[in-house]
Design goal:
This protein is of the alpha/beta class. The chain contains 6 helices and 27 strands.
Length: 313
């Protein structure tokens, strides 16, 4: 069977490689860091899944994917290779920029994207001693836990409520938005809810899906806005089955909501992920489903054509 190159050795990329390998395909996984796990590296329950996947999947570390002109290459020390259509992107979330988030003011040292702090912690260093994390998701919480464990003083600023019982007494959670940064050589304070919070470090942990190579298919958080590891893993299973569809038969979908992997799915699989930010109710032909958490896995009926419509109250 044809071989595939998977860009990214996080949960999505390793799950996809494992499923493709199980289906009889040859797979190469490449990762530009010198460790695997991606954004889930600090999440113990997900890390155990990743460690298990590594027993079956080989990863080429320190290998980047770059676009040169109209072509995409994998590049490593001493070599490179042009990538073809059998490439799948599993690069995960990108961190939102400060202009996107409406954060103004100075741009001193001490402002980090989430992934940079993961790298710093991996090498047993700290980004600062008094850290503000701006994020509204489980990854902001896992980062806070790790920083507190290593001796940092942490505040989490979140636009929405966060449930973090295990952080009570260790890290403050403030509901609000970071609006302004002050600092000369390094961050000195940030403005939240009209009040200045003293800090030496600001970590941006707000995310958006991002496929850096849109000409290729993508899995996981590179294309789906979800914090649920089960959705991430399922996207990889769906993609693997789509890539290795033996029957060649497909089911067509009419939908007024985004669906993964698209409006044509393998008839052998008949499974999609329906995306609905904030949750909603949908009709799949004549059956109603509730979408929670922004995305849900739906088993489709075995018919030639499926209609997916949002229920408007």
């Amino acid at each position: 069977m044809v071989g595939y190159t998977v860009i990214g050795a996080g949960l999505a990329g390793l799950s996809l490689a494992m499923e493709l390998h199980r289906l009889g395909a040859e797979v190469e996984v490449v990762e530009y860091r010198d460790y695997v796990g991606g954004i889930h590296v600090l999440t113990p329950e997900v890390r155990s899944i990743i460690n298990d996947l590594l027993n079956h999947v080989t990863v080429r570390l320190n290998t980047a994917a770059v676009r040169i002109g109209n072509e995409v290459y994998t590049v490593w020390r001493g070599g490179y290779r042009r990538l073809g259509n059998n490439t799948i992107i599993a690069t995960g979330f990108r961190v939102m920029t400060m202009p996107e988030l409406g954060i103004y003011g100075d741009r001193p040292a001490g402002i980090y994207p989430h992934h940079a702090v993961l790298d710093i912690l991996y090498y047993n260093l700290l980004p600062g001693k008094n850290v503000v994390i701006y994020g509204n998701n489980p990854y902001a919480l896992s980062l806070a836990r790790e920083l507190v464990k290593r001796g940092a003083v942490v505040k989490i600023i979140s636009p929405t409520g966060l449930n973090a019982e295990d952080l009570r007494g260790y890290a403050d959670i403030i509901i609000g938005r970071v609006k302004y940064v002050k600092g000369r050589g390094r961050v000195e304070k940030v403005l939240v809810n009209g009040e200045w919070i003293t800090t030496d470090t600001l970590v941006i942990s707000m995310f958006k899906p991002f496929n850096p190579f849109p000409g290729f298919k993508a899995v996981g958080q590179a294309v789906i806005e979800t914090y649920d590891p089960n959705i991430v893993i399922e996207s990889s299973r769906i993609m693997a089955r789509e890539l290795t569809n033996e029957s060649g038969e497909f089911l067509m979908i009419d939908s007024d909501l985004p669906i993964y992997p698209g409006n044509r799915v393998s008839r052998d699989l008949r499974r999609v992920i329906i995306l609905c930010s904030g949750g909603c109710r949908v009709m799949v032909n004549d059956k109603e489903y509730v979408i929670n958490g922004g995305a849900s896995i739906i088993e489709l009926p075995d018919v030639d054509r499926v209609s997916i419509k949002r229920v408007v109250s």
